[in-house]
Design a protein that fits this description.
By secondary structure, the protein is α+β, with helices and mostly antiparallel strands. It has one helix and eleven strands, in the order αβββββββββββ. Strands 1, 2, 3, 5, 9 and 10 form a six-stranded antiparallel beta sheet that branches. Strands 6-7-4-8-11 form a five-stranded mixed beta sheet, with no helix packed on it. The longest helix has 28 residues, at about 5-30. The chain is elongated.
């Protein structure tokens, strides 16, 4: 038979290990919001581009709400597939807590690629800001659900691709 004192010591070790694991998990969860966790509140602008092939592309550029006052502007560059042009571009602005910030969207046609058929839109964004913080680009085609196509930092180019149907 096993001594009951030995079993009690094993139970204490197990409790200490479980407590240590719980504390480590709490520390990780506490650190996540500062690195752009999923439950962070985001704000931004969303220009909409109507294309000559009938598609409508909506782009959402988001920054953490707490950094909204640091923004001085958002530049959106969109490169379209060969043979597709923009019929209209609707700019967007949003009051991010301490003033309205708008987007400036530039649309260009992509380079000729010979016989290959390009079916994606390239989006490059720069969020001009006094601080460095997360930036994410969401996009939608023809009213579908927005999907994240890129993520990066402010004051740098963040690029992603969106497939046309």
């Amino acid at each position: 038979m096993v001594n009951s004192r030995v079993l009690n010591i094993m139970g204490t070790r197990k409790k200490i290990l479980l407590l240590a694991a719980a504390l480590m998990m709490a520390a990780v969860l506490w650190a996540l919001p500062s690195t752009g966790s999923a439950w962070m509140s985001w704000s931004g602008v969303d220009p909409v581009i109507e294309l000559s092939n009938g598609h409508i592309v909506a782009i959402r550029v988001d920054v953490p709400t707490e950094n909204g006052c640091d923004l001085t502007g958002i530049t959106v560059n969109v490169t379209l597939p060969e043979g597709v042009s923009a019929v209209s571009v609707k700019e967007s602005s949003d009051d991010l807590g301490c003033g309205v910030v708008g987007s400036v969207t530039t649309v260009t046609n992509g380079p000729k690629r010979g016989k290959s058929k390009v079916t994606h839109v390239e989006v490059t964004v720069i969020t001009h800001s006094a601080t460095t913080h997360a930036t994410k680009i969401m996009a939608s085609v023809d009213g579908d659900k927005f999907k994240q196509i890129a993520r990066g930092d402010s004051n740098t180019e963040v690029s992603g691709r969106l497939m046309l149907k």
